[in-house]
Amino acid sequence: MNKIKGNIADQTLCPVARAESVVGDRWTVLILRELFMRMHRFEEIQAQTGATPQMIAARLKKLEADGIVKRRVYNKRPLRHEYQLTEKGEAFYPVILALRAWGETWCKSPKEGRAVTYTHLTCGKPAGLGPACESCGKPLHREDLVAEQAPKYRREREARWDAFKANR
Amino acid sequence: MNKIKGNIADQTLCPVARAESVVGDRWTVLILRELFMRMHRFEEIQAQTGATPQMIAARLKKLEADGIVKRRVYNKRPLRHEYQLTEKGEAFYPVILALRAWGETWCKSPKEGRAVTYTHLTCGKPAGLGPACESCGKPLHREDLVAEQAPKYRREREARWDAFKANR
DNA sequence: GCTTGTTACTATGATTTTCATAGCAAATAT
DNA sequence: ATATTTGCTATGAAAATCATAGTAACAAGC
Fold this sequence. Notes:
Chains A, B: InterPro entries: ArsR-like_HTH, HTH_HxlR, WH-like_DNA-bd_sf, WH_DNA-bd_sf. Chains A, B: Residues 14-111 form the HTH hxlR-type domain. Chains A, B: It holds the Pfam family HxlR. The structure is a homodimer. The first copy, chain A, has two domains: 1-91, Orthogonal Bundle (Arc Repressor Mutant, subunit A); 92-168, no CATH class. In chain A, helix 2 crosses helix 3 (42-49). By secondary structure, the first copy, chain A, is of the alpha+beta class. A three-stranded antiparallel beta sheet of chain A has the order 4-3-5. Chain A has a two-stranded antiparallel ribbon with strand order 1-2. Chain A has helices at 15-23, 26-36, 42-49, 53-65, 87-90, 93-106, 151-166; strands at 69-75, 80-85, 116-120, 125-126, 145-149. Chains A and B meet through helix 1, helix 2, helix 6 and helix 7 of A and helix 1, helix 2, helix 6 and helix 7 of B.
């Protein structure tokens, strides 16, 4: 079995170390990103993250063990599961949002444009990068956000899916 | 040389993937935590993270290459450097804060208590877990926060330092 | 009833990273 | 001259990761 290693967790009071022992891994975070984008199937996650099936399987198993993800049967015969965020998983959203804000601001050239833009349902206007709405100033919650992918980003994701489907 | 691998970065518009190619690693995040706690020396970072010197050295080198950390000479003879956050590094604070909030809330039993509590200078009251001040509601900025370590956490860190100094 | 397709993985062996342990260099302090 | 401090680098074993291939369990079409 694949352990991702996380035993500092029980030896420190530091919440950052505790959190990192659960999500301190690139694939894990990318999987969570996909789940937040409502991709629930193994295949979709594999295609969009580019990780090997073992990487995905190991991470999902650990995420489930850590109470962040739950499996749900969506088809009985053949038995098929989909992956969903638990309450603990949903609560991770602010981290993803902060990571997105930092990534958009500091890891891209301005002319590239945003991958996703959010509209704040509460006020009907652009939400910006958070954590507070750039239009109305209120704190952003996931359920009040409508995401729109930039055409370029949508094409990028479609291309990845097509490429994945093509060679199998 | 030690590459941490980060080339998805240039192939996707996704800011989360971009960010992860830079900070998607447990040691990297723990190093950043230490820098935010104003530990600037190699030794201190090594002692408090528990990583091997190569891990620290490789991560610091990459963080410097990625513009998140800068080295500063604090002693000429013998030549000694300390590590500081750049503007890009400082901008990462909201991610650490969000990670802390999630870790405190979901990765600890309530009776363990907080590792660090923040007072919000703007209103003089407890800041809570953010991103907005739990007392006055305003968004939290690092420069307006005064951190106080819980005695238990302070002792934990002192013990780690002593243990590190002891065996070398 | 046999081939093809779908989905979710598991198996395998090479490559790469990480870990534990030790050591070095360039000074200062004693 | 010897010990100590600080910031690393070297080495080899152990573990994780990667690319590639394959399996299982069924459904659907011919």
